[in-house]
């Protein structure tokens, strides 16, 4: 990725590049979370390298792996597959970490924010923590009011993954989730590949197989602030989402089953607008989530390769994030429950809307909604999902 790269939204060339996965000026001063341009690892690239990031209470070692390519530097933890840091340049070539997180292991063990985490077995919520599959009822941990969220209280985000380098700038994370873990049926063999492309874009490829019928919905929970983590709020970031419909929720954030039109509502991001433009309009759906915490039904639907889903732009830094995915849905979460009680990697407190998430996914509560795209995986089938986070500047 070069700071002056331009990506044309929706263009065939741009989408093809995403599907394929495929003059820094010194800064006078650095904003929070910002490093001077041309940091050594980002300039050199090179093979992935690892270092200790601490130990779990049982003594298990946690590693931090660092990748650099195309001007981007990525740090990933073996614990939770967490994106611990994601550094990209602004329009002037100044590099900043644009993902929220912590500078030590202990806060990741106790926080419930899912900063940067690999989410599974089921991203998002399942009503009552219950579903029925092939006539058999399954009960999951209830960890979000009356519902199960992000795979339960010890989901994939709380597990240590086997990590191996892959290629010039990639990591392969593997884990076998045993039958019955967090109440889910079937032994699930999961592989997730994190790759930095030649342009410095982050590509995530998920695959999974099972030995018994189960449900699967994997995603990543990185919080983005394109001005740099710890720099303040994201309400002035401009967001576009390629979705004409969204899934309204009840007061526990479970979809009602309706696919509602975004037209005439605060949920209309079909043309880019500031995140904060309509967030206080008093719409009942915004009261449920104390802001945006909703699944958008992407117009493209399920696709064989990653296609455009959303664009985020920070006018102050010029950084642009484009999201392309094979998934049919996108959860836009505006960081509503950040309350100032957590200090990030720069030591600054994270307050409401200091970061936002763009989680690619199948829809929440799909196991209980036969009219939603299916999340059932059966023996002999392979779950596949790809998402690309592409960076540019304007």
UniProtKB/TrEMBL annotation:
Keyword Acyltransferase: no
Catalyzed reaction equations: alpha-D-glucose = beta-D-glucose
The entry's keywords: Carbohydrate metabolism, Isomerase, Signal
Endpoints of the signal sequence: 1-30
EC number: 5.1.3.3
One annotated GO biological process: galactose catabolic process via UDP-galactose, Leloir pathway
Short name of any one Pfam family annotated for the protein: Aldose_epim
Protein name as annotated: Aldose 1-epimerase
Organism: Streptomyces hoynatensis
Organism lineage string: Bacteria, Bacillati, Actinomycetota, Actinomycetes, Kitasatosporales
């Amino acid at each position: 990725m070069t700071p002056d790269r331009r990506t044309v939204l929706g263009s065939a060339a741009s989408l093809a590049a995403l599907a394929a996965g495929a003059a820094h000026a010194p800064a006078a001063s650095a904003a929070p979370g910002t490093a001077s341009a041309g940091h050594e690892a980002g300039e050199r690239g090179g093979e992935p390298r690892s270092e200790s990031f601490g130990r779990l209470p049982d003594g298990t070692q946690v590693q931090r792996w660092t990748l650099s390519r195309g001007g981007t530097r990525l740090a990933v933890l073996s614990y939770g597959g967490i994106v611990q840091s994601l550094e990209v340049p602004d329009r002037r070539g100044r590099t900043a970490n644009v993902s929220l997180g912590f500078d030590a292991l202990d806060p990741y063990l106790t926080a419930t924010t899912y900063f940067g985490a690999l989410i599974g077995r089921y991203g998002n919520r399942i009503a009552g923590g219950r579903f029925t599959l092939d006539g058999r009822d399954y009960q999951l941990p209830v960890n979000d009011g009356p519902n199960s969220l992000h795979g339960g209280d010890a989901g994939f985000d709380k597990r240590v993954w086997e990590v191996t380098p892959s290629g010039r700038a990639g990591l392969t994370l593997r884990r076998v989730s045993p039958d019955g873990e967090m109440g889910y049926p079937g032994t699930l063999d999961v592989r997730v590949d994190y790759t930095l492309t030649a342009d410095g874009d982050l590509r995530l490829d998920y695959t999974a197989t099972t030995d018994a019928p189960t449900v699967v919905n994997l995603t990543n929970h990185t919080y983005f602030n394109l001005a740099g983590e710890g720099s303040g709020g994201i309400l002035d970031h401009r967001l576009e989402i390629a979705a004409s419909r969204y899934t309204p929720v009840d007061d526990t954030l479970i979809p009602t089953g309706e696919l509602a039109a975004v037209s005439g509502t605060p949920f209309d991001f079909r043309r880019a607008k500031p995140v904060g433009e309509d967030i206080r309009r008093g719409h009942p759906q915004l009261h449920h989530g104390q802001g945006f915490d909703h699944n958008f039904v992407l117009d493209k639907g399920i696709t064989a390769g990653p296609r455009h889903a959303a664009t985020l732009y920070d006018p102050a830094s010029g950084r642009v994030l484009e999201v392309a995915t094979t998934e049919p849905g996108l959860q836009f979460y505006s960081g509503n429950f950040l309350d100032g009680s957590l200090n990030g990697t720069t030591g600054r407190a994270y307050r409401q809307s200091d970061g936002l998430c763009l989680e690619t996914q199948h829809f929440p509560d799909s196991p209980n909604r036969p009219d939603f795209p299916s999340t059932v995986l059966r023996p002999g089938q392979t779950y596949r999902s790809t998402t690309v986070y592409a960076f540019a500047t304007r």
